[in-house]
């Protein structure tokens, strides 16, 4: 399993994904995520899902964000946990367009096109290089 404490924050992979929650399940989805099972929370942390957040719009658009050393490894490690199998089975009916598959297998991962810290570091390095 990935070690979430290894590496610096700068070396973490930032991942953003979308899913769509069925409109008639929005309230229940919010309720379920207000008190996620403690063993699920511990499994996410242990498998390298850090700074993980979910954002839900009124039309059902779900946006997830996390940071991890290796997203594929973190997702694979999570898939091997018993608690994730139970959680995914309970959550599958909440989503549109997944064909009943695990939500984790249906993420639409977005491509990062801008990060403030990355560009500031590059600008600072360029300015430092130009000053020498």
Automatic annotation (TrEMBL):
<dbReference type="InterPro" id="IPR011008">
    <property type="entry name" value="Dimeric_a/b-barrel"/>
</dbReference>
<protein>
    <submittedName>
        <fullName>L-rhamnose mutarotase</fullName>
        <ecNumber>5.1.3.32</ecNumber>
    </submittedName>
</protein>
<dbReference type="GO" id="GO:0019301">
    <property type="term" value="P:rhamnose catabolic process"/>
</dbReference>
<keyword id="KW-0413">Isomerase</keyword>
<dbReference type="InterPro" id="IPR008000">
    <property type="entry name" value="Rham/fucose_mutarotase"/>
</dbReference>
<dbReference type="GO" id="GO:0062192">
    <property type="term" value="F:L-rhamnose mutarotase activity"/>
</dbReference>
<dbReference type="Pfam" id="PF05336">
    <property type="entry name" value="rhaM"/>
</dbReference>
């Amino acid at each position: 399993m990935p070690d979430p404490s290894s590496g610096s924050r700068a070396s973490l992979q930032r991942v953003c994904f979308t899913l769509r929650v069925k409109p008639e399940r929005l309230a229940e989805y919010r309720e379920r995520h207000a008190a996620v099972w403690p063993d699920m929370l511990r499994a996410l942390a242990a498998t390298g899902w850090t700074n993980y957040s979910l954002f839900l719009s009124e039309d059902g658009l779900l946006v997830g964000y996390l940071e991890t050393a290796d997203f594929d490894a973190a997702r694979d490690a999570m898939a091997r946990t018993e608690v994730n199998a139970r959680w995914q089975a309970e959550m599958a009916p909440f989503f549109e367009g997944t064909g009943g598959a695990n939500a984790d297998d249906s993420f639409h991962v977005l491509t990062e096109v801008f990060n403030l810290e990355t560009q500031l570091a590059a600008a600072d390095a360029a300015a430092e290089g130009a000053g020498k």
